[in-house]
Amino acid sequence: MNAITPSLKPALPLELFNEAIARVNEWRGRCLDGFARAEMAVAECLAAMSEAGDKAPRVGPPQLVGQRYEVLAAAIAAGGPFAAQAGGVASVLERFRAHHDLRNMLAHGVGRVTLDRSGRWTVVLKVMTSRGGRACHDAMALTEREAEEIGTEVGRLSQVLCSQLGQLRSRIGR
User: Fold this and answer.
1) Which pLDDT belongs to residue 42?
2) In the predicted model, what is the mean pLDDT of the chain?
3) What is the percent of the chain where pLDDT is above 90?
4) Pairing of strands 134-143, 121-131
């Protein structure tokens, strides 16, 4: 009788997986760089706003990035203390913030990389969060093509947001 036993030999050469993992990590790094640059620009803009005299938001720059985005969004929204100087920043900020879940996955997620027959990768990122006091697992799967498209969008939006926030700082005098 012939028993079926799993093969210990990899089905594909290890070099292919190592190359794919390196490409995934490079993509992850590029995306995280875009997020970090935007987060720095937001923090610098909030610091400039806090020094702007009577218009200054009464809330100091929060530690959590999501809270910083909230304070900035409120300050530049219609009726906010810096709405007149904001220009199109609010729109770009909202489009950039739409990628916040990706940021969390990239920064905190544990990844698993798989390959298809052509050597194209898919990454599955998993992170553990808390909702209502209960532990939850969230996951995101992206093919190489999807990831590259999202990475390009994050990079482009980060550049635009950084530029517009720099212009906003100039308009408020800092």
Assistant:
1) 95
2) 89
3) 68
4) antiparallel
Residues 6+ apart with CB under 8 A from 65: 39, 42, 103
pTM of the model: 0.86
Q: What pLDDT digit, counting tens, does each position of 11-68 carry?
A: 677 889 999 999 999 999 999 999 999 999 999 999 999 888 765 555 566 788 889 9
- Give me the residue label for tokens 């990389």: 113
Does residue 123 fall inside a structural domain?
Answer: no
Is 115 part of any domain? Answer: no
111 lies in some domain: no
Are the C-beta atoms of 114 and 143 separated by less than 8 Å?
no
Provide the β-strand partners of residue 134: 131
Alpha-carbon dihedral of residues 47, 50, 53, 54, nearest 10 degrees? 150
Q: Is residue 164 part of a domain?
A: yes
DSSP state of 61: P
Would you call 88 helix, strand, or coil by DSSP?
Answer: coil
Amino acid at 61: P
Residue span of the structural domain in which 21 resides: 16-99+146-171
Q: How many domains does the chain have?
A: 1
Strand order of the β-sheet with 110-115 is 110-115, 121-131, 134-143
